[in-house]
Specification:
The complex is a heterodimer of chains A (201) and B (468). Chain A is α/β, with parallel strands linked by helices. Chain A is built from 8 helices and 7 strands. With 468 residues, chain B is α/β, with parallel strands linked by helices. In chain B, a hairpin with a 5-residue loop joins strand 1 and strand 2. The interface between A and B is large, with 55 and 81 residues.
């Protein structure tokens, strides 16, 4: 997994609430057996018309946001299905951080497995960042995971919370399967115990 | 000992290891696997030379992509990408030695129908699957939730998940439901009341007299949509209804093990005085048959209501409602019962079980669907289908003008050929009304099976209470 330490980049505003995983990556693109190559279809039905032409009004089609690395989004971003294709598509497009007032649980977890940092902030702070993002490409935001700080283009600083273990994995690009495999003795002993207490499992 | 919730008890019984910051390694009793979210996980195992730690606790079924037309027995899936995914599952299941129900096995169906029916799902278990509707299994008092593909790989390799505990939320439905009101109306009404983010960060325990009175099928419908309310999982404490459903199923414990299991299962309830971080209470008598009007499952109204206006909402929901109304082609103020529909879908992991088919058939019996209506029933599994045929339900559907399909996820997410065309409007017993969910520019109204049947007869959204 790619490490995430500190990022200064363009933030794209997506104020719509309840942006669901079907919007992020429609199901027709779930038929892949690979993880890569989904960026071109990120937000497909909002981004392209039926003939595959770009819809100019969509934020990531606007010249100033084509290179966006951060999304500032409306409440409950990523609601819906468990498809990890959603963070795969974001990551493949180049999005490395998403900021919102809340995220759906499974999507939130999936982001951390793919080097994407989802950040939850109170509504009034997301409002400030949304306005900052609306300024366009000259307004670059900085997300510093180590310091747990976001700095707006005009120097305003917001701190954010992040789970310590998830932060550790993201900062170091760690594969958590490897970490868990190191605990296999504990799993063995749990299994042995469970075989006694709940033998029907 | 301080009083515990049902969630606390199941959680505590599965913690392998806990770190100082509360991060836990949680043991997983059952892992369900399907063709769409697993290929990359199996590939990951191969690349790192890992195996499936507990193949005997892993159950694979192709469901999302499979055609539901009767000619599928001939074998070939026409869509090449779908075929490759199903073939990949076939290969992975056999190579890694997990339990497998292939397309042409009569037990095949939607994972969340197959698991309970085969007795894989038992009270007090942890159950995960790369599918958000894993919440369904919470109906048995099992802690069940969806996971992403990286976590699928993690569970395959280690039979554990790295988790932090959620908060406890109680949703109580008091009293009894009125005639024509079903489990689907309960679960939609709850989401209407709490919003799609209302459960974020929580595990919900559903309780109260109206929940206790539900069959296992109804309880599965309620828990299935806990995820639409934002919760990690939904739970219902096991009771005699649960035990009698489980008993005798192929993979349920037998003999002395049954007695031992039963003794433990009977301890799985929330202790008097246990703490809930959030409590929501609805009166069963107040719940009416409901429909969704918009493109979020929280856009719920009683069938007797009118289409709302964007100005009826606050904050970011104003723009979202405007966008929904435009997408759905609806005008504020129109009666919901004046909305004409052209497609009816009965099926999905929400409402594809025998009781759902009985409820729909009861409305349809001896009647014909409206001319030009496209209507289909897709049973949750091959065994539900067989049972419905035995009970004569299939004949009622066919005589009414419904297509009688083979089992799968079908038009709930339209990954297979069962899709809405642009602008088509569907009364659907599924769980999501998102933009494009049932087909590009397709329009979805979520309803109960009885309400879907009523709509098929009249050609518009209909209050089923007028027909019973």
């Amino acid at each position: 997994m790619e490490k995430f330490k500190k990022l200064t980049g363009i933030a794209a505003p997506m104020p719509l609430v309840n942006i669901d995983t079907d919007m992020i990556i429609p199901k027709v693109f779930l038929k892949t057996i690979k993880r890569s190559g989904l960026g071109v279809n990120l937000f497909d039905e909002m981004r392209y018309d039926r003939d595959g032409n770009e819809i100019p009004d969509f934020v990531l089609n606007k010249p100033q946001y084509r290179e966006a690395e951060i999304l500032v989004a409306g409440d409950n971003f990523g609601c819906g299905s468990s498809r990890e294709h959603a963070p795969w598509a974001l990551q493949d497009f180049g999005i490395k951080a998403v900021i919102s007032t809340s995220f759906a649980d499974i999507f939130f977890n999936n982001c951390f497995k793919n080097g994407i940092l989802p950040i939850v902030l109170p509504p009034e702070q997301v409002d400030v960042l949304m306005k900052d993002a609306e300024k366009g490409a000259n307004a670059r935001m900085t997300v510093d995971l180590e310091a747990q700080e976001i700095t707006t283009s005009d120097g305003q600083v917001f701190t954010f919370e992040v789970d310590a273990f998830k932060k550790h994995c993201l900062l170091n690009g760690l594969d958590d399967i490897g970490l868990t495999m190191e605990k296999s003795a504990a799993i063995d002993s749990f299994e042995a115990q469970a075989a006694q207490s709940r033998p029907w499992i | 000992m301080s009083p515990k919730t049902l969630y606390d008890k199941i959680w505590d019984a599965h913690v392998v290891q806990q770190d100082d910051d509360g991060t836990c390694l949680l043991y997983i009793d059952r892992h369900l696997v399907h063709e769409v979210t697993s290929p990359q996980a199996f590939e990951g195992l191969r690349m790192s030379g890992r195996t499936v730690r507990a193949p005997e606790k892993t159950i694979a079924v192709p469901d999302h992509n499979v055609p539901t037309t009767l000619d599928r027995a001939s074998g070939v899936i026409e869509n090449e990408e779908s075929r490759i995914q199903v073939e990949a599952l076939d290969k992975n299941a056999r190579e890694f030695g997990v339990h497998y129900y292939p397309v042409n096995d009569v037990r095949q169906g939607i994972l969340h129908s197959v698991g309970p029916k085969q007795g894989w799902t038992l009270p007090g278990m942890t159950v995960v699957c790369g599918d958000s509707h894993t919440a369904t299994h919470g109906a048995f008092g099992a802690l069940a939730h969806g996971i992403g593909t990286s976590e699928v790989e993690h569970v395959l390799a280690t039979q554990t998940l790295i988790q932090k505990k959620s908060k406890n939320m109680k949703v109580e439905i008091t009293g009894q439901l009125r005639p024509g009101v079903t489990a689907k109306d309960i679960t939609l009404a709850v989401i209407g009341a709490t919003g799609t983010a209302g459960g974020t960060g929580y595990v919900i325990e559903y309780c109260g007299e109206a929940i206790r009175s539900l069959s296992m099928e109804g309880r599965m419908t309620v828990c299935n949509m806990a995820i639409e309310g934002g919760a990690r999982a939904g739970l219902i404490a096991p009771d005699e209804t649960t035990f009698s459903y489980v008993k005798g199923r192929p993979h349920a414990p037998k003999g002395a093990q049954w007695e031992a299991a039963l003794a433990w299962w009977k301890t799985l309830y929330t202790d008097e005085g246990a703490h809930f971080d959030k409590v929501v209470t609805l009166k069963g008598e107040d719940i009416q048959p409901v429909v969704t009007w918009g493109t979020s499952p929280e856009d719920v109204l009683p069938i007797t209501a009118t289409v709302p206006a964007p100005e009826d909402f606050k904050g970011g929901k104003v723009d979202a409602a405007r966008r929904s109304l435009e997408y759905m082609g609806l005008t504020p103020g129109m009666k919901l019962t004046d909305i004409e529909i052209d497609t009816v879908f009965i099926g999905s992991c929400t409402n594809g079980r025998i009781e759902d088919l009985r409820a729909a058939a009861a409305v349809l019996k001896g009647k014909k669907i409206k001319d030009g209506m496209r209507a289909m029933v897709v049973p949750g599994s091959g065994l539900v289908r067989a049972q419905a045929e035995e009970e004569g339900l299939a004949d009622i559907f066919k005589e009414a003008g419904f297509e009688w399909r083979l089992a799968g996820c079908s038009m709930c997410l339209a990954m297979n050929p069962d899709q809405l065309a642009e602008g088509e409007r569907c009364a659907s017993t599924s769980n999501r009304n998102f933009e494009g969910r049932q087909g590009y520019k397709g329009r979805t109204h979520l309803v109960s099976p009885a309400m879907a049947a009523a709509a098929a007869l009249t050609g518009r959204l209909t209050d089923v209470r007028e027909l019973i």
